[in-house]
Amino acid sequence: MKKTILILILAIFVLGLILFLRFGIGGDEDTWICSQGKWVKHGAPLASEPAKGCGKIETENVKIDNLESDQIISFPLIIEGQARGSWYFEASFPVKLLDKDGKELAVAIAQAQADWMTTDFVPFKAVIELSSLPESSGGTLVLQKDNPSGLPENDEKIAMSIRFPEPETITTIKIFFNNSNLDPEFSCNKVFPVERVISKTQAVARKALELLLSGPTFKEQGQGFFTSINSGVKIQKLVIENEIAQVDFDEQMEFQMGGSCRVSAIRSQITETLKQFPTVKSVVISVNGRTEDILQP
């Protein structure tokens, strides 16, 4: 009789252990499951929806390497991946960001990072910048094959769902450019601000300069904004002390530089972009450590 009771107790214990592992702390019923590129509740998970993505995007012609479907993105949004040479035209193809209703928020150009005249995969990079955070919680990122023929049969695209960051995790900064509409006579040192959404960072001044060096967006160019700074310029050092910002650029800043008006415009773009921050009252610009003879007309 005692043996039967012991066996029964042991069976109940084993059954309880199985149920605990299945439905308790160690189980997998109350969790989030990745299904068809989206996070889906399974049971009643205590944890909030994962911020990371849910499944890599990969087709026979395009692969996205640094983003996953349904991922919370950051700004500026950087997209890196690979596409077959047939997707490019003149080493590029368009990338669009849409809100949840399909409204176009921004357009960027994905640039090939290697020789695109091939049928193999070629790495690409695109950067999307916004002037304001969308009201919707999510949207769609669309990569579109460049189709110079305009024929529908040559169209091709891939789309992935994304989620926008929470408002408390982002901030808005200003970038200063010249503008041919607002200043048609080009008064050299007159620059105008545009706003950019960025994820919060301690290095906000450096991020502002990086965005300045990347130039105006396509939408901003259509509004007359342009930059007087050479493309490809790199920031080598930025130090802010005693309300003075000292920024050092590489030699590309002075490449084929000419004209006092352009030099004045460059200084104004850099200075006004940095002086928006309360810790900066004046700006010292240098190239490879030189301050005396840089940016000469």
Tell me about the largest β-sheet. 9 strands, mixed
- Domain count, please report it: 2
Which parts are unreliable, with pLDDT below 50 for 5 consecutive residues or more? 19-28
Structure annotation, total helices? 4
Which architecture of the largest domain does the CATH hierarchy give at level 2? 2-Layer Sandwich
Under CATH, the topology of the largest domain can be stated as GMP Synthetase, Chain A, domain 3
Mean pLDDT: 88
| CATH top level assignment of the largest domain | Alpha Beta
The radius of gyration is 26 Å
What form results from the Cα inertia axes?
globular
Number of E-type strands = 17
Strand order of the largest sheet: 3-4-6-9-8-7-10-11-5
Summing up helix and strand content along with how strands pair, one would put the structural category as: alpha+beta
Approximate helicity band: 10-25%
Roughly what fraction of the amino acids lie in strands? 35-45%
Give the H and E element order: HEEEEEEEEEEEEEHHEEEHE
